[in-house]
């Protein structure tokens, strides 16, 4: 930006540029959110499969995202950010067509399920392409000094879209039937493809492209810290309802709402603190706050304490991803930025994948409160690792 512009105008201009790009993340995650609350019920009740198969229908998308991360990073670095997003949007459109087709063939449950799962795989691959593509595009558009802001707004777009999409999906199937979700995915993808056609992209950055696994090794220490902190997110969102039932409380949904509101508010208000204080400092402070929140949930004698714990956990977790991401991206060449962001995202995917089975086993053997103690302990380990990385930098 020109130096003569006032700081507030410059900041607003940067934010608007980022928003024009993370709009495509918002569209993608609306499409992810629409079926998330209703798909398991459809597979179980309409197609007649077990709860395990219903869970697989959801998990298949996340597994596809995880496995496609390396390819997504390479594609962003070699072909550019805009083509990666376009391919992702085409994947969403294909997923919409397959979802509608699966509903049309539901009288043959196994065939319908197979088509539905293929559609979920396309949606998962699209998530990986669009997520990495938009962040890389945003950083390239506004400069690496705004990396935290680009990552932060991308997260707000994704979480906000799921929060809107999930209840909207419930309303849609109640009034229009499950096939309407497939049609919605197709129309939203086509709308985004129409809007992106004339949007100027950034040029592909020339230079040496590191192999993905070399990038993965450079990112891994930061990613492991992210995983240790993010297991708290997976634990709370997966088990808070069962925790409330186990304690004989009501209002678990309010707990999730408080978590989400504090998460988004912290990103809106404090993202710029990463540039002022540094990624390590913010990550360490946020992990400490998260640990306090998880400890409150572990010891909570009543719902009010649980709400406070959920709020602190959401507040703490909100900036861990962008704060560590700023430091992680510095470890790789600019020409391999897409691969670096993909490798970093793998560790968040991993946290969500392992939180369910690990914390489920702990709940089964020790009781639900202890899952939050365990998550707090893992958060402390992530904090210690982050302190070590910070000291390594300054030594």
UniProtKB/TrEMBL annotation:
Topology with respect to the bilayer:
Multi-pass membrane protein
What is the residue range of the signal peptide feature? none
Q: InterPro entries, alphabetically? A: MFS, MFS_dom, MFS_trans_sf, MFS_Transporters, MFS_YhhS-like
Q: Where is the Major facilitator superfamily (MFS) profile domain?
A: 209-395
Which Gene Ontology molecular function entries are recorded, alphabetically? transmembrane transporter activity
Q: Which residues cross the membrane?
A: 21-41, 47-64, 84-105, 111-139, 151-170, 176-196, 216-245, 251-270, 277-299, 305-329, 341-364, 370-391
Q: Which GO terms describe its cellular component?
A: plasma membrane
- Where can this protein be found? Cell inner membrane; Cell membrane
Pfam families for this protein: MFS_1
In its keyword annotation, does this UniProt entry include Transcription? no
What's in the keyword line of the UniProt record? Cell inner membrane, Cell membrane, Membrane, Transmembrane, Transmembrane helix, Transport
Q: Which family does it belong to?
A: Belongs to the major facilitator superfamily. YhhS family.
What is the protein name given in its UniProt record?
Answer: Uncharacterized MFS-type transporter SAMN04489800_3368
């Amino acid at each position: 930006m020109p130096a003569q512009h006032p700081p507030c105008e410059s900041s607003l201009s940067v934010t608007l540029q980022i928003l024009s790009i993370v709009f495509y993340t918002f569209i993608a995650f609306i499409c992810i959110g629409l079926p998330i609350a209703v798909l398991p019920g459809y597979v179980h009740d309409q197609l007649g499969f077990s709860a395990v198969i219903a869970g697989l229908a959801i998990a298949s998308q996340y597994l596809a995202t995880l496995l496609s991360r390396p390819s997504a990073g390479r594609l962003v670095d070699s072909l550019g950010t805009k083509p990666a997003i376009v391919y992702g949007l085409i994947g969403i459109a294909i997923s919409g067509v397959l979802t509608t087709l699966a509903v049309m063939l539901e009288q043959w449950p196994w065939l319908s399920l197979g088509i539905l799962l293929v559609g979920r795989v396309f949606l998962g691959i699209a998530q990986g392409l669009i997520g990495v593509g938009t962040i890389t595009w945003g950083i390239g558009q506004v400069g690496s000094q705004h990396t935290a802001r680009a990552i932060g707004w991308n997260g707000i777009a994704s979480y906000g879209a799921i929060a809107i999409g999930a209840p909207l999906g419930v309303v849609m199937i109640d009034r229009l039937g499950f096939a309407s979700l497939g049609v919605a995915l197709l129309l939203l993808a086509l709308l985004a493809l129409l809007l992106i056609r004339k949007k100027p992209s950034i040029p592909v950055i020339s230079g040496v492209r590191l192999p993905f696994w070399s990038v993965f090794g450079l990112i891994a220490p930061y990613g492991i810290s992210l995983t240790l902190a993010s297991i708290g997110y997976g634990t709370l969102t997966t088990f808070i309802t069962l925790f409330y039932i186990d304690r004989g409380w009501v209002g678990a949904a309010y707990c999730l709402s408080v978590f989400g509101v504090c998460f988004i508010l912290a990103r809106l208000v404090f993202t710029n603190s990463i540039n002022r204080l540094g990624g390590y400092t913010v990550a360490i402070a946020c992990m400490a706050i998260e640990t306090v929140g998880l400890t409150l949930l572990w010891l909570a004698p009543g719902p009010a304490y649980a709400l406070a714990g959920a709020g602190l956990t959401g507040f703490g977790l909100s900036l861990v991803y962008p704060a560590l991401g700023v430091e992680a991206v510095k470890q790789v060449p600019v020409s391999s930025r897409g691969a670096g962001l993909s490798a970093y995202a793998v560790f968040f995917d991993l946290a969500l994948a392992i939180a369910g089975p690990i914390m489920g086993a702990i709940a089964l053997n020790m009781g639900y409160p202890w899952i939050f103690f365990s998550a707090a302990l893992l958060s402390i380990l992530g904090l210690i690792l982050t302190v070590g990385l910070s000291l390594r930098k300054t030594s």
